[in-house]
Amino acid sequence: MKKIHATAITLAVAALLGACSPDQPPVEAPRPVRTAEIRYDAAREANRYAGTVQSRYEVDQAFRVGGKVAQRKVDVGQVVHEGDVLAVLDDSDYRLAEEAARQQWQAAVTQARQAESDRLRLGSLKADGSVSAADDERASSGAQTAQAAAEAQARQLELARNRLKYTTLRAPRSGVVTAVRFEVGQMVAEGQPVVSIADPGTPEVVVDVPEDQLAAFKAARYKASIASAPDDLFDVTLREISPEASAQTRTYRARMKPATPRALPLGATATLVVEYQAEKGGVASLPAGAITQSNGQPAVWVASRAAAGKASASVSLVPVVVHGYRNDRVLVSGPAAGDLVVTAGVQKMAPNLEVALAVPPQESAIKQAAR
Fold first, then answer.
1. Distance CA 207, CA 241 (A)
2. What is the mean pLDDT of residues 33-41?
3. Alpha-carbon torsion 79, 83, 84, 86, what sign?
4. Alpha helices for the chain (secondary structure H)
5. What single-letter DSSP state applies at residue 267?
6. CATH architecture of residue range(s) 31-43+281-370
7. For 64-76, how does the pLDDT look when each residue is reduced to its tens digit (9 = 90+)?
8. What are the sequence ranges of the domains in the chain?
9. If we measure between CA atoms, which residue out of 177, 163, 173, 240 comes closest to residue 209?
10. What is the pTM of this model?
11. Mean pLDDT score, 268-292
């Protein structure tokens, strides 16, 4: 009886295990992939350059005389108008110099008057022969010399007045202060830049272009955006590009101005999108991540649909010819126009692998709107 009971239990357990085990292994769902369509008629490239927003007119201001800073009237970010006082130097020495020049001018004027009076007196005596012609000539020469000395002292007095006036630094034009490089009590030299003023009404996007992209850059179309509004693209035009490469970076500085006037925050980070025709002829642009290798040669995985409208497809390896790279894009030829190329996860692909095609963003939006 015990053996019969044990056998029955064994059979029951085996039956339960058999019921829990499926006859066939579960079917694995197709692997979802991201694809890009091969288009030979729209092989335009878009390079992106990081830059900054700068004013077209930004000038460093400096004192035309040296001295000790007595007053500072502005801060960074402050809006100033033409003629506003930016800073003042200690003018004690310049006032003394102006006073000395004034006194020298007065002395020179007095001497010139005396010399002219002597010339006139000798001229009247020359008529009756009381003085010689040589004395009259010396008197005339002395009067002319004294007059010239008085005029020279007048110019020296004017220079002293100007240098006294230069101790007050004023804004030559309206704008915003972008830099202040001095403090009260600091000694500044003549011509040393102390304040920078930029015109906020003329913003430009400034980027550096590598040498190998310069020719394509000049013949391109341009759009730009700033970091605070990355989705707000606006048209810009090339205003100027440096004729000489930078010695340090070997890049050419380009300045782009908005096609239509618009306000941009100075100093903001900007992104310049440069669109140009990549190649003439049958060349398509793909993400660089789509390229793999087959027998040491570049290739891509092409997804072929079994039926129109089917959400899944099988992949096959197709060789390609690489014509060049543009940032994160690669220019290729080989696949047929309209083929769907796997652009992500290519290292996990295998021949005839069933994959699920991702719904493009625009189709997904349409379906959500329909619901």
1. 10
2. 81
3. positive
4. 2-20, 92-126, 133-165, 214-218, 361-370
5. T
6. Beta Barrel (2.40)
7. 999 999 999 999 9
8. 31-43+281-370, 44-90+167-277, 92-165
9. 240
10. 0.57
11. 80
CA distance 207 to 222: 12
| 3-state class (DSSP) for residue 135 | helix
Domains 44-90+167-277 and 92-165 share a fold: no
Long-range CB contacts (< 8 A, 24+ apart) of 91-100?
91/67, 91/164, 91/167, 93/67, 94/65, 94/67, 94/160, 94/163, 94/164, 94/167, 95/164, 97/160, 97/163, 97/164, 98/157, 98/160, 98/161, 98/163, 98/164, 100/160
44-90+167-277: CATH architecture = Beta Barrel (2.40)
**pLDDT averaged over every residue in the chain:** 83
User: Which one, of 148, 122, 272, lies nearest residue 206 by Cα?
Assistant: 272
Q: Fold for 92-165, please state it.
A: Helix Hairpins (1.10.287)
Q: Is 6 exposed, middle or buried (0-12, 13-18, 19+ CB in 10 A)?
A: exposed
